[in-house]
Amino acid sequence: MSARHDSPWWRDAVIYQVYPRSFADGNGDGVGDLAGLRERLPYLRDLGVDAIWLSPWYVSPMADAGYDVADYRDIDPLFGTLVEAEELIAQAHAHRLRVIVDIVPNHCSDAHPRFRAALAAGPGSPERELFWFRPGRGEHGELPPNDWGSHFGGPAWTRAADGEWFLHMFAPEQPDWNWDHPAVREDFQVTLRFWLDRGVDGFRIDVADHLVKDPALPDAAGLGPDVIRPWRDQEGVHEIYREWRKIADSYPQRGVFVGELWDEDPVRFTRYLRPDELHTGFNFPFLSCPWDAAAFRDVVDRTLATHALVGAPATWVLSNHDVVRHATRYGRAHTAHSFDDAKHVEPSDLALGTRRARAAALLSLALPGSAYLYQGEELGLPEVEDIPDALLQDPRWLRSGFTDRGRDGCRVPLPWSGDAAPYGFSPPGATAPPWLPQPASWARLSAAAQTGDRRSTLELYRRALHLRRTEPDLGDGTLTWLPSDGDVLHFRRGDGFACLVNLGDRAVPLPPYEYVLLTSDPLEDLKVAPHSAVWLRVA
Ligand code: NOJ
C-alpha cells in the first residue's frame, strides 16, 4: 500500500524501465547483464523509484534484442543465470523496489523448441497447429497466404522449406503463436506461475492486443479504415487476460499487468483495463503528443476521462526502448512521436529539447496515476543518431531495406562515470567495447558527473521523485485545471499542490503560491522561464 493513499502500490508507482543489455555490464563483455544491474540497484533505490520493469532477459538468439524468446523460463547466458535472477528479485525487494518482468506472448523465437518441432513435423501435423502455418496462394503456393505486412517491413509471412508459410507480425525469427490452441494458453499460464512463484510483482505484456487473430486471416486491403485490423484487438484477447488476472490475484503479491497497447482508440484501450483484466496500460497518446499546451491538455483530459470509465489509473510515459529519446524529439521541428522518425533524421536543438524534457518530467510526475521512466532519461540522454551503419543491430534496419535506422539510437549503453567510453558501463579491464558505441560528448552526462550538481537533470529527477513521495497530493487522485494563457498548463492537485508548465517562448508570471517546491529551470525575475515547469505549494 502507498503511504499516502489507501490504495494499491501500482496506482501511483514510478516504474523505471531497465533495458538489461544497456544498463550496466558486470562481466566486461560489453553487454549489460544481471551482475551489472544488481550492483546498481542502490542507484535506483536512491533515485526514488518504486519498481523496475526489465525488458526480456530470457534465453534468446537476440534477433530482436530478446523479444524473440526461445525459453520463457530461463535466463539468457548473456545476462546471467536463473539463480542470479532469483537473487536480483530478492535484492530488489530488500531495497523496496518491486520487479516487473516482460512477457512476450504474441510470438516466440524460431529457436523455440516448439517452433523447431513444428518445422520438423511438416504440413498437417499437430505441432504446426501451435503457430499459423498456411499454404501459399498462387499456382504453386509461391505467394503469401494474405497481404499482411510485418511491423518491421516486408510481408508478415515467411515460407518454410517444405512450401508452407508461417505468420510473423514482426521479424521472420519471431513466429506468432496460435492462441486459439489450448496448449499455448496452458503453457503461458505455467510461465506466469513460474515467475510469480519466484516473487516477481508483475508483467509488462508485449504487443498485448495482438495475441488473437481473425481465424479467417482476411486480406487487409479491402477493409474500411474503421474496421479493426484482423491481427489485433480481437474480442477473444480479453478472455486470456481475465484468466491471467485470476492467476495473478491468487498470489500473495497479487501480480500486476501493464499492457503495451499502441493503436487503440481510447475507449477500446480502456476495455483492457476493466477490473478483471489488466491493471494498467502504457499511455502512448501522451508519449506521442507534440510540444503544445492545447494538445497536452487534450490528451490529459481524454486519458483521465476514459480511465475513469473503468476505474483504472492512468500511466504517464515519455520514452521507451522503441522510440526516439524525448530530449531529442522535443528539440526537433516536429515534436510528436512517429514510428517513421528513424527514417529521416531531422536536426534537433538539444538545448531546447533538454529544457522541454526536464519540464515534461515535472509534468508527468505531477499528473494523477503512475509514471514510467526509461533508463537514461534521468540523465537527460539524447538519441544517438550517428551510429555507423555497419554497427546498427535493430532488425528494422535490415527489414526496411536499410531505409529505417531503427531503434538502436535510444538503446546505447548508459554512461555511469569517467571521461571516456565505456564510461563505467563495463568494469575496468573489459574484454569488449559496449555493444553500441557511446558518444564522446557523454562524459558530462554520466551519473557521476551529474551527481551533486543541482542544475543537472539527474538531481532534478532525484528531487522530483523524493518530493513525489512526500507530497500527499501527488500520485493517485484527481486534477483541477486552473486558468492559464494559451501556452501554459496549470493545474492543482489536492489541497496544496499546483504545477505550471510553460510551453511557450516567453516567461510567464508565477501564479499565487506559498512557496516554490521545484523548478525545472531557474525562475527569471519571479517568472516561469520558457519551456520550463514549476511545482508550487499553494494555499
Ligand atoms: C514491442 C517491443 O517493445 C519491441 O521492442 C519489440 O520489437 C516488439 N514488441 C516485438 O516483440
Describe this structure in words.
The chain is an alpha/beta fold and 539 residues long. Helices cover 26% and strands 14% of the residues. The chain is built from 14 helices and 20 strands. The chain has an 8-stranded parallel sheet. A 5-stranded antiparallel sheet has the order 14-15-16-20-18, with helices on one face. Helix 2 (34-47) packs parallel to helix 3 and helix 5 (182-197) packs parallel to helix 6. The two termini are 28 Å apart. Bound molecules: 1-deoxynojirimycin (NOJ). Residues 64, 67, 104, 170, 206-207, 260, 321-322 line the site of 1-deoxynojirimycin.
**How are the strands ordered across the major sheet?**
11-10-9-5-2-1-13-12
Count all strands and give the number.
Answer: 20
> What overall geometry do the principal axes of the alpha carbons give?
globular
- In terms of quaternary structure, the protein is single chain
* Radius of gyration from CA coordinates: 23 Å
Distance between the termini: 28 Å
The proportion of strand residues reads 5-15%
Structural class category: alpha/beta
Uncertain regions: pLDDT < 50 for 5+ in a row? none
Specify the biggest β-sheet: 8 strands, parallel
> Into which percent range does the helicity of residues fall?
25-40%
User: Mean pLDDT across all residues, rounded?
Assistant: 96
Contiguous helical run count? 14
